[in-house]
Design brief:
The protein is 28% helix and 10% strand. The chain is an alpha+beta fold. The protein has a domain at 70-194.
Amino acid sequence: MAGSTTTIRIDLRTLLPAAALGVVVLVIIFVELCGRQDVAPLGDETPFVQGPTATLGPTFTPGPSPTTGPEEATATQESQVAGSDRDEIRVRDLNAVRQALAQYQQERGEYPSTGGGIQSLCAFVEFDAGCELQEILDPLPEDPLGNAAENGYWYESDGDRYVIYAQRESELLPACDEHPQHLEDFRSVLCVRGP
């Protein structure tokens, strides 16, 4: 028997499913370990302490980003922005709504009607006529102070004409020539009229 060699044959058809099963098991173990909170990350020798987890707060942004057109109306929620900066945002937003109203009127022959009364632009979807503009401008802009029911934009229309109102915080921009009683909580208001 000198010089005899033994040949080992491996059938890959039986080896591949076993190897694939091994890989799947390793992936499951890896995913389970990564998702567990009681396992310290690699390289971190300190034991995990169960307790409340910290959440990241809002990141600082150096000011509102400029609105480039009606399709990108600002919905800034940064209350630390100065009143004059917020007023500039409001004017851009009111102009975006004005452009949406012009397109709405072109397509339908009239503006969304509030029956001549003043409503929030779209704080109450079921009731506010201005919500119809979402077909053209979505999302509709929101006041920089947030809380659309209190600080939002206001809309009045009889179907032929309209006025859009916003709070005015600074003396930088001219005040609206009328100040509706419905908006008496605002010291001053901005407005855009059409047509």
